[in-house]
Amino acid sequence: MTEEDLAYWSLFISSIKPLKQKKGVERVKPILKERLKIKPKQEKEVSYILDLHGLTLQDAYTTVLRFIALHFALSSKSVLIITGKGLKGEGKIKNEILFWLETDKFKEKISRYEVENQGGAIRLYLKKEKGIKKCQRKK
Where does the chain show beta strands of DSSP type E? Predict the structure, then answer.
């Protein structure tokens, strides 16, 4: 720092004063992490996320197809697929994935989907697989 910068810095530091506390407002004690309970919204709960950044269209298609098939078989309720927005909002995967989801291969496993983050992510709600019961552990 130059001498001039140091002079400006000293002047700036000397002008700083603590904020005045408003009348009738008590300082709040910090909450302990053990006491803090956050309950996520049930309909927005996502267990699995797939990030497609850096993949080609063909790789992204096969990855999405396998990802959905896996979580459909696992009876996952919803998954999140991050496509990214692309440069100037013109992402190739972002634009193509909506067409993929309307094909029969995907429709048989997906009940609905929502576009989020201005098109940079898609939340999929999966159907329940018919005819398969959940495994129970033997005691």
Answer: 48-51, 78-82, 110-116, 121-126
